[in-house]
Known about the structure:
Blueprint: E1 5-9, H1 15-24, E2 28-32, H2 36-43, H3 54-63, E3 67-70, E4 78-81, H4 100-109, E5 118-121, H5 129-140, E6 148-151, H6 161-167, E7 170-174, H7 177-187, E8 195-199, H8 200-231, H9 235-242, H10 265-272, H11 278-305, E9 310-314, H12 329-340, E10 344-348, E11 356-357, E12 360-361, H13 365-371, E13 374-377, H14 382-385, H15 389-392, E14 396-399
Parallel strand pairs: 1-2, 1-4, 2-3, 4-5, 5-6, 7-8, 9-10, 9-13, 13-14
Antiparallel strand pairs: 6-7, 11-12
Helix pairs in contact: 1-3, 4-5, 8-10, 8-11, 10-11, 11-12
Amino acid sequence: MGKEKIVVMGMGYIGLPTATVFAAAGFDALGVDVKKEVVNTINGGNIHIVEPDLDIAVRDVVSKGKLRASLSPEKGDVFILAVPTPFKKEQGDAKKPDIAYVEAATEAICPFLDEENLVILESTSPVGTTERVHEIIRAKRPDLKRVYVAHCPERVLPGRIMTELVENDRIVGGIDEASAQKAKALYKSFCKGEIITTDSRTAEMSKLVENSYRDVNIAFANEISVICEKLGINVWELIALANRHPRVNILSPGPGVGGHCIAVDPWFIVDSAPELAALIHTARNVNDQKPHWVIGKVREAAAKIGGKPKIACLGLAFKADIDDLRESPSLEIALELAHSGIGEVLACEPNIEETQIKGLKLCGAQEAVEKADILVVLVDHKQFKNIGKDKTAGKTIIDTRGIWS
Ligand code: SAJ
């Protein structure tokens, strides 16, 4: 495939790095976003998200004129949809996927499509969404005889995006064989991993299953941790021992599951086969319950101490050594404790420079640990691992990540 023009819809955690690696591979990339400030930031050679090495790569391709950002699409050879696929904010137990952004982005590119263009859906999507993209294109552009459509789900880990984009294997699912092959040839331009082709529904399900597999296994660890607490067993020692078995590999319990992927994607499977997805559904509920269990533990500890104890919430991000607060159970716990009035919350997030988050005043780790009566470890940030036992002596410790256990 020659060096063509690529239009990427959505300049978020996936769209921007993807447009950037294509631009670095020699393509002319246009990044489209609905937010003017995002477009301006990128055109200035800067980035609006925190991700190692992305800033250097963006500055480079923007300065060479290989990546531009715009509020609206243009004609191109390849169109990549990298927009959010959240669930609907409805009350109730099970949650429904919301593919409105995918539909809107597809409609937005339709006027710019030409014969033989390739359209790729990268957003994590419920099974059937790629076919829906194809349907919209056919309805809006009946004049086009041949447009190739494929799904190529992203699988990169936040914090390692620039490495994993290039090195991970990729699954490419076409609405037909020719679409899959065309998409495979495209990703070969920068992807060092193996590119495996299938149909679009299998590719969609594969991505959902990968994240659900992790969710179910974390739920197992979380359930074990709650049972161990009741039985007076140190769960971290227990897991280390059980993992000595050659075919056992229990993951780590925590305060709950956060981020925008693992806590969301399993619902897409539950929604598509509610009566068949009992395990996946239960795992979601187990992980969603864990923050409430942690809050209960803090309440018990506070009641034992009496009065209004000082409670240090160590870490607010959804996982270690990042600044991402999306769907973070740690932030949920800290906010709930602050609102409950059971004590004074000293919240601490070393990866964030702001002094306040959602009304929660932030302080340094040292100050929080020194002043607090109760230390709640919510994230296993490296800064907390180094806090010595002498600093925590005599305090009540609720260590949800096992860094001091
Ligand atoms: N967590 C635990 N215990 C563990 C592992 C994780 O409690 O043993 C928690 C974390 O603290 C965090 C959440 O789970 O709150 C998710 O963290 P993660 O590091 O497992 O995954 P994400 O959400 O950062 O990225 C995942 C990855 N998927 C898989 O590993 C199967 C990534 O490869 C995907 O590309 C990404 O979701 C995505 O975009 O879908």
